[in-house]
What we know:
253 residues; alpha/beta; five-stranded mixed sheet; three-stranded mixed sheet; 7 helices; 14 strands; 27% helix
Amino acid sequence: MSYSQQELLISVVARMLGGLGHIAVGVSSPIPGSAALLTRELSGGRTRVSILGSRDNNSFTDGGVELFDCAAQGRVDAFFLSGGQIDGHGNVNLVGVGDYPTSDVRWSGCFGSAYLYLLVPRVILFRDEHTPRVLVRDVDFISAPGSSAPNTYRKGGPHALVTGKCLFLFDKDRKRFRLESVHPGHTVGEVTDATGFDFDLPDGGAEAVPETPPPSDDWLALLRGTVAGAVAETYPAFAATAFSNPPADTLSA
Length: 253
């Protein structure tokens, strides 16, 4: 069955969420939000999903304040972060490009990202754009650190990095990424050329890196039915195109 690029990325994220009790999703995150809602459907409703900005899929009444409280109490199992820059040590930059405070380009800011990065056990970094401009050797400003000193209380940190080309997993002991799979239509060489930081390969080298598996027919049925309806409440434009197999962006299993 054919599937869209968005459906592929949703399935990549969802495979890392199974069995979790509470998944929280920030604003402007339609693909992570869809993955969380798919996980809820697969769990039979046992997984709780909180999407900031949603009326139907968010029990919080005070926005980010309650999210931060839940994270501090150990009641959030997974969260998602993105960034204008992400480096090979899992550091995230949400402030800007250039020497702070005289940055050449300024972004929206951190909004608690460092706090959640240290407290939520499974943080998945997501950025569709996979270029050396985004995936850099060292970020210009550390908004949220990928690792901390040994005497720092830290329950959370980077679990994986999902891009439009591949999936990286984060090795907390080595404090660097390992290439886990390459999405259909891309190659290890292409990923290497488009990545500004060094990363590890599995035993066996580049030839041992598998292709990212496509979403199953059962998952696609859920995505195009229940999940599309649920995510449309918060992201109507995304839902109108992501699950309809647009011809220019359609892959085949």
